[in-house]
Write a structure and sequence with these properties.
- The chain is of the alpha+beta class and 158 residues long.
- It has six helices and four strands, in the order H-H-E-E-H-E-E-H-H-H.
- It is elongated and about 80 Å long.
- The N and C termini lie far apart (66 Å).
């Protein structure tokens, strides 16, 4: 019985090739789009969920008008961090974040890498694993740096 249904379906597919191609390709594109949208939603919902204080972390966005359009971006003025802590008692801590690219040197080895400048309060706000050293001491001075395990292996070896 099922084999008869299968034969009839295949015969109809070959009889109406254009219609069948249109329907099957539409179904495939629709399913692929749905899967991509679901993956995007899953990524957005699970982003940075490993932090212990995730329910108390917020990002401030700046909104400006460029060429008649309102643009939003996460760059904000530097005095804003201190102003938020002073003016709003519910703000416990702030950390500024700036992308940077530079050359790192250890002995004879040089490595160009991308990194971020952050305030010392960054590691108190975000839960990042520290493998070696003290997280608070690594962010105290102007020349202080904290690196990932992968970057440390590239620069210093094992």
């Amino acid at each position: 019985m099922i084999s008869n249904y299968l034969k009839i379906a295949i015969r109809n597919l070959f009889r109406n090739k254009g219609f069948s191609f249109l329907n099957i390709s539409g179904l495939a594109i629709g399913m692929a789009s749905a899967v991509l949208i679901l993956l995007w939603i899953q990524n957005e919902v699970s982003y940075d969920q490993f932090h212990a204080k995730k329910d108390r972390l917020y990002m401030v966005y700046n909104r400006q008008v460029f060429d008649g359009k309102i643009e939003c971006f996460p760059n904000t003025p530097y005095p804003l961090a201190q102003g938020l802590v002073q003016e709003y008692p519910q703000v416990e801590a702030t950390s500024r974040f700036q992308f940077h690219s530079g050359l790192f040197t250890a002995g004879q080895k040089q490595l160009r890498a991308h990194g971020d400048f952050v305030d010392p309060s960054f590691l108190t706000m975000f839960t990042l694993p520290v493998i070696h050293g003290d997280a608070q001491k690594s962010m105290m001075g102007v020349g202080s740096v904290a690196v990932t395990q992968q970057f440390a292996k590239k620069l210093f070896g094992s």
